[in-house]
Design a protein that fits this description.
Layout (H helix, E strand, L loop, with lengths): L27 H20 L1 H8 L15 H8 L1 E5 L2 E5 L13 H13 L3 E3 L2 E3 L12 H16 L9 H7 L21
Antiparallel strand pairs: 1-2, 3-4
Helix pairs in contact: 1-2, 1-4, 4-5
Length: 194
């Protein structure tokens, strides 16, 4: 767990936890590793090393939650915040969705899109291969990857919509709290691969 947990991966963002096919096993332990590594990578891309290390020092090592003693800027980043700039009102939903159902998070979208992209094929001793399903038919997975990659991009660096802001917009609006953030951008993808 790293701010989010496996409960974010249900409904359409399902990561199988009972073994997949006989030749391509998947375990819930692996999703914990994906969450820890990819959620951190997402935040490193947004903040850069210095600010990320400041955030990281305010996250519990054992539980992956924000420490109670964390500065308010990190609490607002994680839990969300409504704020105004001049006469314009904005809302940042936060990195975690709290009690809202279904749970949504820029981190979950990033983890899931990375997971889907990585698990389309497997590296074997003979090269790159796709597992053969037993009692099922494989389908083209690019559509699912593009859907969740684009949801990630929208919540990470997309335009403001009805006052709701993306992660990068929130960071830009709070430049005094997050000076010199790297603000790495990602691009929307299409299903054609072009």
């Amino acid at each position: 767990m790293y701010l989010i947990d496996e409960s974010y991966f249900d409904l359409d963002m399902v990561i199988p936890n009972t073994g997949g096919s006989l030749d391509v096993p998947v375990s819930m332990k692996s999703i914990d590793k994906w969450i820890r590594s990819r959620a951190r990578l997402c935040l490193q891309n947004a903040f850069g090393n210095v600010l990320f290390e400041d955030l990281e020092s305010n996250i519990e090592l054992s539980g992956g939650n924000l420490k109670q003693t964390a500065p308010q800027k990190w609490k607002d980043l994680v839990d969300g915040k409504s704020y105004s700039i001049g006469s314009d009102a904005f809302t940042w939903k936060g990195l975690v969705s709290g009690d809202y159902q279904p749970k949504e998070s820029v981190l979950a979208y990033f983890v899931y899109s990375q997971y889907v992209e990585h698990n389309r094929t497997r590296l074997t001793g003979l090269g790159e291969a796709k597992g053969k399903s037993i009692n099922s038919t494989s389908i083209y997975s690019r559509r699912k990857w593009v859907t969740y990659h684009n949801k990630f991009v929208e919540s990470y660096c997309g335009d403001t919509c009805d006052g709701y802001v993306s992660l990068l917009t929130y960071i830009e609006h709070h430049e005094s709290d997050f000076p010199n953030a790297s603000l790495k951008k990602f691009e929307f993808q299409n299903q054609m691969g072009i």
